[in-house]
């Protein structure tokens, strides 16, 4: 019998960690070396219900456990490291890692409780390896003591691919109704932080877009695919309120370019439809830091230009000569963006150079043909080197090098016993 491999993760959520969980579990199942079982977990306030009725992912339901089984052979948690807890004979922690320069001490302690750590990028691996802390009240130095490996977030090429013929969907028609022929796309949760201080830098993206293209004839549009925590009406209203505050503060604005909000949770095919829409010409991300940068990888597969910051996890897969990299410097995290036990006030992340933002916004718009050629090279690289298949092979290699070999459970087989032929005895006279 195969060894039991239990994965505790937010498998059913509309989140980056949810997508990571589904891909990892699917790869494990396809490797066909373990009895793979899933223990679903929540992921903050993110919407749930991704799997139910999903043609691609519905098969995962048969692997879901009603409750945790005792002492599984292999145990993997996909979450933030301060939640890591060893449950199995061999314990794995899988995390996207950190978007800043250091991780909290509780994260290092969580990692040290496990046998192996998997993270999504070279950036995150480096942050774990260099973060050190003094144990409160002692002289003990807390540092990573367990092995850590980079496991990419593999691109599903069956989903994220070029669309040749578009269906007459609500999403397609919604974007098609825009009068603009050229639209930038930015994707990400609008996280906490003052204007220009939220990690995804949504506020600064909007402000820069307004200021650069104000008072222009036939400007491009900006499509904002975002929410704060979920798809509620209140959540949408808050985003619209924030956009209006930025809009109203733009000086000398006789006319302003249009921003269109796509709010809530999308399926993977819907995201691919969005990426492929003929009016969506390029993606812009002024992110301050990424553990990996999944939407950037997905979009790169569509052969369209990308403008983004030159720091952190996405630099593993975005080639310097083929994307519009924004230079900048590291700066301390603003107090408004601090998250206890996660984003520390003494940590740093990226501050983009505003002149680069303006130049690249404009250059991609006016010199699109040049950038489109670069994007095709990037697309080929992403599909070849960062696919789901590559990730699956990485899992196999990492496990062969790191996992202890546990004895397989013996399957009790009762042999078929051939019974002798019995004949009825006859009474004989002696």
Can you give me a brief rundown of this structure?
The chain has 430 residues and is of the alpha/beta class. The chain contains eleven helices and 16 strands.
Distance between the termini: 59 Å
As residue ranges, the low-confidence spans are 423-430
Q: Please list the strands of the largest sheet in the order they lie side by side.
A: 2-1-3-4-5-8
SSE string, helices as H and strands as E: EHEEEHEHEEEHEHEHEHEHEEEEHHH
Taking the sheet with the most strands, its summary is: 6 strands, parallel
CATH homology superfamily name of the largest domain: Glycogen Phosphorylase B
The domain count comes to: 2
Specify the oligomeric state.
single chain
CATH class of the largest domain, please? Alpha Beta
Named at the architecture level, the CATH assignment of the largest domain is 3-Layer(aba) Sandwich
Number of helix segments? 11
Number of strands: 16
Shape: globular
Describe this protein's structure.
There is one protein chain. Helix 9 (354-366) crosses helix 10. Helices cover 30% and strands 17% of the residues. The protein folds into two domains: 3-154 and 388-402, Rossmann fold; 170-385, Glycogen Phosphorylase B (Rossmann fold), CATH 3.40.50.2000. Helix 6 links the parallel strand 10 and strand 11 (259-263). The protein contains eleven helices and 16 strands. The chain has 430 residues and is of the alpha/beta class. It has helices at residues 16-31, 105-112, 122-130, 170-176, 202-213, 233-248, 268-276, 294-300, 354-366, 368-385, 388-402, and strands at residues 3-9, 34-40, 74-78, 90-95, 116-119, 133-134, 141-142, 148-150, 183-187, 221-226, 259-263, 280-285, 306-309, 324-326, 328-332, 348-352.
